[in-house]
Records
---
Amino acid sequence: MLRYKLLGKSGLRVSEICLGTMSFGQDWPFGADEATSHKVLDEFADAGGNFLDTANKYHNGETEEYLGRWMQDGRRDRMVVATKYSLTMDHTDPNAAGNQRKNLMQSVEGSLKRMKTDYIDLLWVHAYDDDTPYEETMRALDDLVRMGKVHYIGISDTPAWIASAANQLAELRGWSQFVGMQAEYSLLERTPERDLLPMAEHFGMSVTAWAPLAGGVLSGKYTRGGDNDSLRKNGNSEKNRTSDNNLAIAREVDAIADEIGATSAQVATAWIMAQGYRFIPIVGARKPEQIRDVIGAAKVELSPGHLSRLDAKTRIDLGFPHDFLASEHILDMGKGEIRTQLDQRPRA
């Protein structure tokens, strides 16, 4: 059975793995039908999962409708439902997109109606909108919390400086603050370590990592046989996820999985969970057996040796100013040799 964590600085209990639902629906070229989606949800709930991640944009609202009908059998209050707004729901309406108050209010009303519920547990700002002042967004989000239609708020796919400034403003004004940050994070995408993850740590936000399997590359489907050439042409080439270097990383994941008797998907997901208490992988599934497999990651313990091997294969350069400030020359110039006698303050 899955265990639970506190989300950010809140008292909200969420399962250590979050079920992403972008593959539920058939309005887009890919996705599971409603009956299959409900079976995936049943598998997740039966394993103790209670944290569901969706968005109004997924399959143009169909995903939220699937969830709403599934939750009608007395499941709503047991689930922690997170949805998102920002992306356009009507390409002909200039105000049906963005993070301004009008789109926020109408998006939330639409989500509530589709999911047949009176409240949203966690509302994510889906993506940064450089047309809307973050001050407007934060005040409008706080209004929704005070109205009881939203319980908690989070920030997704946004530069660290914007998320930081918005959360600091909310703290100063006594408004609701972000309890979570969502970003693409995996063994193939570690760039959030430059600024997003330190920002989340500073504010005590949970980090929900989407695409922990990097579009399936870390599941073994490109490295354990099959029609690799055709697979590499579908879905991952635009991000170069199936480059030779990335496939080498995937093979290292495969090797560790074989050593410990786990699947590749479980090892890649367990790596996210091993980054610390605040990290929660968002896993997707179009079939019940897929979610059953990934849930097994909760029982996988990667040794320090395994983590060291994966880190050596995937470590990134943090770039300026991080590498500059961490250099021995600058440390000596800035703090003097006495720094070697200074015990560092424990991080929160």
---
Amino acid sequence: MEMTAVLIKAATFVAIIFLGYFLRRIGFFQEKDFFLLSKIVIKITLPGAIAYSFASMELSPSMLVFMLFGFGGGILMILLGYLINAGKSPEERAFGMLNVAGYNIGNFALPFVQNFLGPVGVMITSLFDSGNAVICLGGAYSVAAMVSGKSKGGNPLKAILRSLTRSVPFMVYMIMIIVCLLHIKLPQLVVSFAGTISNANAFMAMLMLGVGFKVELDKEYTGKLVKYLLLRYSVAAALALVYYHFLPFDQEIRQTLAILAFAPVASANPAFTGEMKGDVGLSSALNSLSIVTSVVFMTILLVVMA
């Protein structure tokens, strides 16, 4: 893809995010509307995009290895989030573990990949997110809650499994992976239906991010925000270099993995931070700023690799 085309598409994504933010600021959307838009994306347009991307692809068992990249990246960030706050309070260590972990794939990176890379890129992204979901939908929270002493007790593995089985995107991932491995062809009507819904995913996801965008830059947050963003994106740069230059895969796969390394932090982190009685304001600011940072870095990466 030519550099001009990349920049135009990236600018379009930014414009839609800004549109959502602007419409909230003038009162067209209320803050509570974010949750409705989030429901539409997570339960309708994202599952449609997942189903459509898998429906036209041949999946071999060897490709399941890409699930480990999403899972492994999450585990690495949980560990680093703990180490960066070594010697500090259990609450701060837990905050770091939760809030630098996980990748916002479905609501951000997948729409990006849909528009910039081919169907193979979408497939790799979906497999990556299947592993990433274990971290985002309860894995990071369960570990962080135990470190902070705010764990509600019970078996954490059961809690994670319960969270995963209640996630519509994750269940669609699992169903479509099985369908592809068994070489089952979906009816054309189902594929067409999923494709129509898929077309709305990028717009709805970016609009949702704009409506939910909120940064309260309290002075006491500045140092912590810089620390967590530097950690997150330094690791992303190192992983992207390894993925692109040293892995034995086709170029399109290496490009996709390098881009995914720069995905924003998981969108569910502020909610889980609240569950843990942590600093939701700091978590929300970090989440929103990571979206801005990722737009910049992913666009630069796409231009460089174009």
